[in-house]
Amino acid sequence: FISPGMYAAMPRDILLVVGNEIIEAPMAWRARFFEYRAYRPLIKEYFHRGAKWTTAPKPTMADALYDQDYPIRSVEDRHKLAAQGKFVTTEYEPCFDAADFIRAGRDIFVQRSQVTNYMGIEWMRRHLGPEYKVHTISFKDPNPMHIDATFNIIGPGLVLSNPDRPCHQIEVFKKAGWTIVSPPTPLIPDDHPLWMSSKWLSMNVLMLDEKRVMVDANEETIQKVFEKLGISTIKVNIRHANSLGGGFHCWTCDIRRCGTLQSYFD
Ligand code: DAV
């Protein structure tokens, strides 16, 4: 295939860190096939310092991986397909973007999306083995791509759940004792340029630890939500970066965490 390529600006999209292992995602867009190369100098450095380093099977990105009729499908049809777990990528071969996974200790949650197929999810499940549990969850969302502006876990048993994209399995989280927080409507103005993302980048925050969050300096309503939860806010203006398609969570990838491996979803 021929592709002009793209930026490699969002480490969250391509790298999934589980324990001491850095997993390079295969990606699903042809334009992103070579993105891993931008991170290789860093990954080699981590490898020298003891990290386990894995690259998931590279897709051939054959035409058969994509529903060729998808661009001409109506909005209603896309909604219907989404409800059946079908999107522009087919099940021809495994593909996923790392950002469709979100971690909570031994439990890892993932959505079937435009860029992550069931075969990719199954690859991850078998790869991680019995130490981790991979749960496929889904949302009322005809256009899912990356889970972190939809369902962003911000602490032990604490999750921001996008009210425009309700989670079909939310009762399971409630039963497990989780607190579900509905983030307020984003304040980003209508005329602010955005690319491949919605205003919900406001909830795409980065937790430095359980008590500190990096949040957009302009998003005062969500800042108040965090403060009420006893989480102190580190306010940074990231609006310019939002225009390239990501918030704090997209633009970062935590490599090392203090603490121990625990279960939060029993
Ligand atoms: O509005 O769900 C998520 C982040 C894209 N990298 C959205 C965009």
Written overview of the protein:
This protein is α/β, with parallel strands linked by helices and 266 residues long. The chain is 21% helix and 19% strand. It has helices spanning 11-14, 36-48, 75-83, 118-128, 170-175, 220-228, 239-242; strands at 15-18, 21-24, 52-55, 101-104, 107-110, 133-136, 151-155, 158-161, 179-181, 206-209, 212-216, 232-236. The strands form four sheets. A three-stranded mixed sheet has the order 1-2-3. It is globular and about 50 Å long. Bound molecules: delta-amino valeric acid. Delta-amino valeric acid (DAV) binds next to loops.
Main traits of this protein?
12 strands, transferase, 19% strand, 21% helix, 2 domains, L-arginine/glycine Amidinotransferase, Chain A, 266 residues, AmidinoTrfase, binds delta-amino valeric acid, alpha/beta, 3-stranded mixed sheet, membrane, glycine amidinotransferase activity, mitochondrion inner membrane
Compute the number of structural domains.
2
**CATH classification, class level of the largest domain:** Alpha Beta
Which structural class fits the helix and strand makeup? alpha/beta
| CATH homology group of the largest domain | L-arginine/glycine Amidinotransferase, Chain A
Q: Say how many strands there are.
A: 12
